[in-house]
Design goal:
five-stranded antiparallel beta sheet, alpha+beta, Peptide Deformylase, single chain
């Protein structure tokens, strides 16, 4: 659940019912499409964000983009808070755009919920500034560094039909894609 106030309906407070959605596995056509902007942050988008957070935490992961659950909208969620501290710090970014990126670079070993158990070192700007709408539809701008910078860029890539394996060699990408095809076949049999 996010930090929004619960709106009362009669005498019973509204408690959002969150749904764990299926995460698409690469290769899947949804993962390679550019997503459409969210026109209006309404109850449907807030429900989508709640479901995405629930799905991300269940996976478990630190980020999830809408196309990973088959929704071609420009929205992603992240939570890079230290899990040992036990306090979640979810963020919902709607229609995000990078407005600035540093010349300094970081290398992180990235993984993806749509490419399970595969990891590769990816180089990205060490810091980025993004503009976006929050869950209440208000314009925001924030700077991200370290793991947050990597996670926001990774998830923004999803909204543009780009996977982290698109940054590695064609040979490695083909090997990973073949492993994912095999995984999908195995899961289909179960």
């Amino acid at each position: 659940m996010d930090k929004r106030q619960l709106a009362p309906i009669g005498r019973i407070p509204y408690i959002p019912i969150m749904t764990i959605r299926n995460i698409l596995i690469h290769p899947d056509a949804h993962l390679k499409k550019v997503c459409e902007p969210v026109a209006n942050v309404d109850a449907e988008i807030r429900k989508l964000a709640d479901d995405m957070l629930e799905t991300m935490y269940d996976a478990p992961g630190i980020g999830l983009a809408a196309p990973q659950i088959g929704v071609l909208k420009r929205i992603f969620v992240i939570d890079c808070a230290d899990k040992d501290e036990g306090t979640p710090d979810p963020m919902v970014l709607i229609n995000p755009e990078i407005t600035w990126e540093s010349e300094d670079l970081n290398v992180y070993e990235e993984g993806c919920l749509s490419i399970p158990e595969m990891y590769e070192e990816i180089t990205r700007p060490a810091m980025v500034r993004m503009s976006y709408l929050d869950i209440d539809g208000k314009a925001q701008e924030a700077e991200f560094d370290a793991l947050y910078a990597t996670a926001t860029q990774h998830e923004l890539d999803h909204l543009n039909g780009i996977l982290f394996i698109d940054y590695i060699s064609k040979m490695k990408r083909t090997m990973i894609t073949n492993k994912m095809k095999k995984l999908k076949k195995e899961r289909a049999r179960d």
